[in-house]
Amino acid sequence: MSIRLRLTAWYTGILFVTLLIFSSAVYGFVHLYTYEELKQRIEQQADKIGFDPSAWDVQLNRSSVSRLEDADLYWQNYTFYNGKLIQSENMAISNLQFDLPSVEKALKADKPVFKRVSVNGNSFLVFEAPVTEQVSRKLVGWLQVGANTRTIEQTLDRLQSILIMGSAATLVIASTLGLFLARKSMKPIGKVTEAAEQIQKGTDLSVRIEYDGPQDEIGQLIGTFNGMLERTESFYKELEDAYAAQRRFVSDASHELRTPLTTIRGNVDLLQKMWTVAPGERADMDEEMIKQISVEAVGDISDEAKRMSRLVNDMLSLARADTGQTFELDPVPLQPLVEEVARRAHFLEKTAEWHVGELSVLNGVYVEGNKDYLQQMLFIFIENAFKYTPEGEVSLDVVLYKGQVGLRISDTGIGMDKDEVPFIFERFYRADQSRGITSGTGLGLSIAKWIIDEHKGSVEVVTRRGEGSTFIVWLPVVFAPPLE
Ligand code: ADP
Questions:
Q1: Which of 240, 417, 438, 469 is close enough to 463 for a disulfide, judged by CB 3.0 to 4.6 Å?
Q2: Is residue 392 part of a domain?
Q3: Range list of H helices, 277-356
Q4: Is 424 in the pocket of ligand 1 (CB under 6 A)?
Q5: 383 lines ligand 1 (CB under 6 A)
Q6: The domain spanning residue 151 has which CATH number?
C-alpha cells in the first residue's frame, strides 16, 4: 500500500471517528433537550389541571378557553369512585383515549411517571400521576397528560438523516481531497525515485531534480539529494580525471623510457657486432676507427643511462606525491637557503651569464617549509632557465609583498608562446621547440609545482617567444623566528 493511500486512509479514519462522535453528541443533545422541554411543558400542564378531582370539571371549561396555548397537549382524568372520565376537548374531538390502569395497578403507582404509548397509530409521551385524597392519602383518581411526539420524532429523524448524509459527504470530499493533496505532496518524492533509478541504470550523474516548492521536509530532501548528486558527480569527475592522468602518465613514462633504451640497445648491438667479428672481416676498419666508434657508443650509452636515471628519479618523486606523501614543514630561514642555491648555480652547465640580485632583504625572513625540497624547486627553475637560454643572462632576485616572498628567476632565452603556458606544469609536457633540441624529461616543472603547492605557495609566469621568461614563486612568510 502506497504512502499516499495509507495517509488518506488514516486521515479518513480519524475524520470518520471525529464525525461520529460529533454527530452523536449533537443528536444526543438535541434529543435530550427537546424531550426535556416537552416534559416540562407536560408537567406544567399537569400542575395547571391540578390534583383535585372536584375541580376537574371547571378545569375542562377553562382549558377549552385557553386551548390554543396548549393545542398539542392532551389530557384526561379518571375518577375511580364514580368511574367518570374527563377529557380535554382536543382528545374528545380526535376520539382518543389513553389506556387506564386497573385499580390494583394504580394503587401500586406511588409517584408520577412518563410513558411512551401508541394510540391509534400515533406516538405519545404521557405523564401519568395517581391522585390521592389530601388527608387520608386514599387513591381517588388518575391524571394523564400527553403530547403527540410525531413532530419531534420527524425533526429528530431529519436531523439524523442530515448528520448521516453530511458526514458521509464530508468523508467522501475529505478523502478525495486528501488523496489529491497526498498525491500532490508525494509527487516530488516520485521524482527523487525516478532520478535515483536513472542514475542506477546509467552513468549520467548530471541529473538534478527540479523543484520550486517550499523548503519543507520534501524541499530539504530534494536539496540534500541534489547536493549529494553534485558531490558525487564532481567526485566521479575527479576520479575519472585522475584515472586518465594516471593512464597518460604510464603511457608517457613508457614512451620516454623506450627512447633511451632503444639508443642503449642500438649502441650495445653495434659494439657487440664490432668486437665479435673476426679481425680479417673488418678490413675496412682500422683499430683507431674501432676505438673511436666504441668511445662514442659508450658515451651515448652513458648519456642515455643518466637520462634514464634522472627520469626514474623524477617519476619516483611524482609517484610519491601521488600517494599523498607529504614532507615535514619547519620554519626555514630563506637568506642562507637562497644564497646557497645562488652559489651552487655557478657550477651548473650553462652558456648564459648568471646574475644574483640583492638577497639581504631576506634577512630574518622565514617560511614554513622544507629546505631540501625548496632548494630542489629553485634548481628546477634555474636549470630550465639555463637550458632554454643559449645566450644572454639568467638572474635571481627576491621581492617582499603583502606577507609573501617572491623568488624571481628571469632569463632572456627562447621564451614561450602564451598558449603553451597552461600546459608547462603538466607531466611530460615539453614545448615543441624544446623537444629534441634540449634534453629534458618534461617532469621538472610538475615536481616544482607539487613542492610549491605543499608549501601553500603559488607561481606566476611571464614569458614571450624569443624574449625570455620570468617565473616568480610566491611563498607565505613567517616573520618571527621560532624560539629555540
Ligand atoms: P623539461 O625537462 O622539458 O625542461 P619541464 O617540466 O621543466 O621539462 O618544463 C616543461 C617545458 O616548459 C619545457 O619543455 C619547456 O618547453 C618549457 N620551459 C620551462 N622553462 C622554460 C624557460 N625558462 N624558458 C622557456 N621554456 C621553458
A1: 469
A2: yes
A3: 287-322, 334-345
A4: yes
A5: no
A6: 3.30.450
Alpha helix positions (H), 202-216 = none
Residue 470 near ligand 1, beta carbon < 6 Å: no
Domain range enclosing 297: 222-322
Q: Are residues 376 and 457 in the same domain?
A: yes
| Nearest atom of ligand 1 to the alpha carbon of 433 | 16
Q: What is the Cα–Cα distance from 475 to 459, expressed in whole angstroms?
A: 9
Distance 314 CA to ligand 1 centre (A): 14
> Are 475 and 342 in the same domain?
yes
Whether residue 69 has pLDDT greater than 60:
no
- Is ligand 1 within 6 A of the CB of residue 469? yes
For the stretch 15-61, pLDDT in tens is 999 999 999 999 999 999 999 999 999 998 888 887 777 777 666 65
Residues 146 and 51 reside in one and the same domain: yes
Question: What CATH number does residue 288 fall under?
Answer: 1.10.287.130
Among protein residues, the one with the nearest Cα to ligand 1's atom 13 is 430
pTM: 0.55
54 within a domain of the structure (yes/no): yes
Q: Would you say 440 and 308 are in contact if contact means Cβ atoms under 8 Å apart?
A: no
**Residue 448: CB within 6 Å of ligand 1?**
no
- Give pLDDT tens digits for 307-356: 889 888 888 888 888 777 788 899 999 999 999 999 999 999 889 999 99
What are the CA-CA distances from residue 280 to residues 251, 270, 290, 304, 364 (Å)?
46, 18, 14, 32, 74
Residue 7 is assigned to a structural domain of this protein: yes
- Same domain? For 401 and 263 the reply is no
Selection from 97, 204, 206, 214 nearest residue 144 by Cα: 97
Pair 311, 392 in one domain: no
Residue 135: pLDDT above 80?
no
Spatial distance between the Cα atoms of 115 and 127, rounded to a whole number of angstroms: 6
pLDDT tens-digit profile of 403-415? 899 999 999 999 9
Q: Do 387 and 274 lie in a common domain?
A: no
Ligand 1 atom 11 nearest Cα: 430
Asked if residue 146 is part of any domain, the answer here is yes
pLDDT value at 484 more than 50: no
Q: Report in angstroms the alpha-carbon separations of 245 from 242, 325, 428, 471.
A: 5, 18, 11, 25
For the CA of 409, the closest atom of ligand 1 is: 23
Average pLDDT, the chain: 86
Residue 446 alpha carbon, nearest atom of ligand 1:
6
Mean pLDDT of all residues in 123-132: 90
Task: Indicate the top mutation candidate among 430, 435, 443, 452 to test ligand 1's pocket, ranked by most ligand atoms within 8 A of CB.
Answer: 430
Same domain, 304 and 354: no
> In the chain, how many domains are there?
3
- Residues 307 and 340 grouped into a single domain: no
d(CA 148, CA 117): 10
Cβ of 114 less than 6 Å from ligand 1: no
pLDDT at 114 over 80: yes
